[in-house]
Write a structure and sequence with these properties.
This protein is an all-alpha fold. The chain has a single domain, classed as Tetracycline Repressor, domain 2 (Orthogonal Bundle), CATH 1.10.357.10. The chain is 71% helix and 0% strand. It has 13 helices and no strands. The protein starts with a helix and ends in a 6-residue tail after the last helix.
Length: 222
Amino acid sequence: MATPRATIERVPAGPAGPDRERRAVVRAARTVLAREGWRRCTAEATAAEAGVAPDAVGRHFPDHEQLLLGVLLDSSASVAACLTAVAESHLAETGDLREDLIGLGRAWLAPLEAFREHFAIVRHISAEVTTLPAGAVDKWQATGPRQARRALARRLEQVAGRGLLEITDADQAAERFILLVPSSVVQRSFHGALPLGRHEEDALIADGVDDFIRLYGPPASR
């Protein structure tokens, strides 16, 4: 049986007819989910947004919750892929460790602008977390945040191998970096809904990097 994400992604590229209607339903579900949240993203609201007959959503997706879960997982996977690319493109070579980590922290925030709809969904999901279907949160975390964290952990482990960081648990170090550096901006800006000024962002990132180096930098840098 196909997973929700596979159900959404494996859409033939036909120019018209049912395939086009199906893609319109998926796009509409994403838009309504970002605007209204999980509980108010009904099949009726999705159909209205897509401009299709009310029964069209059920024809393509008999289980509306699985449609919403598929949209969430697909969106999370896209952000994780972006952050994986960020992790892989930073710290391959290190000149000034502090400045390089600051650059990584700023790049880690790029999805806030590039995936605004996704983070609107995240804001709603965070408020509705206790009412979501069983397993939805764990699947979301596994598809998105944990994937990105593992990519960062691999890169930090490589930096530690060059003697620039002292790390015994790379996954924990990656989690600490995310909490100390980009998350300070993410939380204060409410996942990008209220963007901060550049000066405030820079100060938060630099302070977080300094805290990270105090935890994981070699003794000479502490």
